[in-house]
Amino acid sequence: MNPYRRSTRWTLGLVLLLAAACAGAAPPSPRWTLVDLGTLGGDGSFGAAVSDSGYVAGCANTASGAVHAFLYRAGTMVDLAGDEAGDSCALAVNDSGAAAGRAAGGGLVVWEGGQMTALGVTGDINAINDAGLVVGAYQAGGEQRAFAYQQGVFRDLGTGAGSVANGVNARGEIVGSAQGHAFALLRDGTLRDLGALADVFSVANAINDRGEIVGMASNPQHNLSAFIYDGTLQWLAGPSLSGAVDINDRGLVVSSGEGVFGYVVAGSDVTRLDKLPDVVAKGWHHMEPTGVNQRGWIVGTGFDPQGQPRAFLLMPR
After folding, report:
1. Three-point CA angle 31, 249, 151, nearest 5°
2. CB 10: neighbour CB atoms within 10 A?
3. Which of 22, 48, 97, 249 is the 20 to 30 A CA-CA neighbour of 128?
């Protein structure tokens, strides 16, 4: 099982299956606290998403070696899988604590209020907004197709084979990629192909409530680079061979680059996560982000001093 949500995904070992943002973006905080989210009794864990209210979704090893979906908040990790046999992972979460992901057997599900609702398909889930709109990709006849699901209604987005929906904002605007082109499905139903913005390849990974889109694309030099789109495409500060993973409404972008792993971008300021003082002091490394919330909390997975993959929160102070 590979729970990673976005095209900058990397692989955990173990049994874990598993900008130039807006011009007014404030520089990232120079001081951060690293929080180890722990596990469900085993060695490793994976942090997939964080909500504005502080819920974290992910999956972790149990004492028996299985991988179970979890929901974490304020120091408490809840096993969403319970007694269910097999491996599972929560991949997205909203402010009310509704989580979405994969159950044992690979079926896509939503966990909410102690209940699990099956979507009836297999594939990947990448985001959920506060209205319960879930987006991702499902398998149909050997093809991967972008979908949206809300309140029992499942719909194919009509973006064709080889497509995936990666992000959704509060207005229900969806971004992703189809046949190697980034797209945005706007709230009026307009499907905008952003592929012409890049030289060869592009993928949109996230959209904030202001409509700013981030992702990765091939630049004129044919290298993959992180971008932000707010009506025009701008290349983000940072290393080459990189991609933007997520953006909050303050313009804070989390990205990942080949060989440098996770970093934060705010305007022209670039900060590597593994160079933050608290990360260095605690002996962590290979810090890979998967999301950022409106408070600037960054969720992801890094390696602790014992070399174990662990879900983390980085919280500015």
Report:
1. 120
2. 13
3. 22
Q: pLDDT tens digits for 65-104?
A: 999 999 999 999 999 998 888 999 999 999 999 999 999 9
Spell out the domain ranges in the chain: 32-316
Taking domain 32-316, whether its CATH number is 1.10.10.10 is answered by no
Structure tokens at 7: 């095209």
In Å, the largest CA–CA distance within the chain is: 52
Nearest Cα neighbor of 309 from 42, 1, 68 is 42
The tokens of 276 are what?
């933050």
Task: Name, in order, each residue with C-beta under 8 angstroms of 262's C-beta and a sequence gap of 6 or more.
Answer: 254, 255, 256, 272, 273, 274, 287, 288, 289, 298, 300
Residue 279: DSSP 8-state: H
The Cα-based distances of 20 to 30, 177, 184, 264 in angstroms read 18, 22, 20, 11
CA angle 300, 306, 309 (to 5 degrees): 25
Q: Taking the CA of residue 39 as centre, how many other CA atoms within 13 Å lie in the half-sphere pointing to its CB?
A: 19
Q: Are 294 and 10 a contacting pair, CB within 8 Å?
A: no
Structure tokens at 291: 């999301």
94 Cβ neighbours under 8 A, 6+ residues apart:
51, 55, 128, 129, 130, 132
Place of tokens 């722990």: 38
Unique residue bearing structure tokens 């952003």: 194
pLDDT digits (tens, 9 = 90+) for 151-162: 999 999 999 999
Cα separation, 160 vs 200, in Å, equals: 19
Q: How far is Cα 66 from Cα 17, in angstroms, rounded to an integer?
A: 10
pTM of the model: 0.91
Q: Which residue in 85, 92, 111, 80 sits closest to 4, CA to CA?
A: 92
Give me 94's structure tokens. 């909203």
Number of neighbours of residue 14 by Cβ within 10 angstroms: 17
3-state helix, strand, coil in the chain (%, to 5): 5, 50, 45
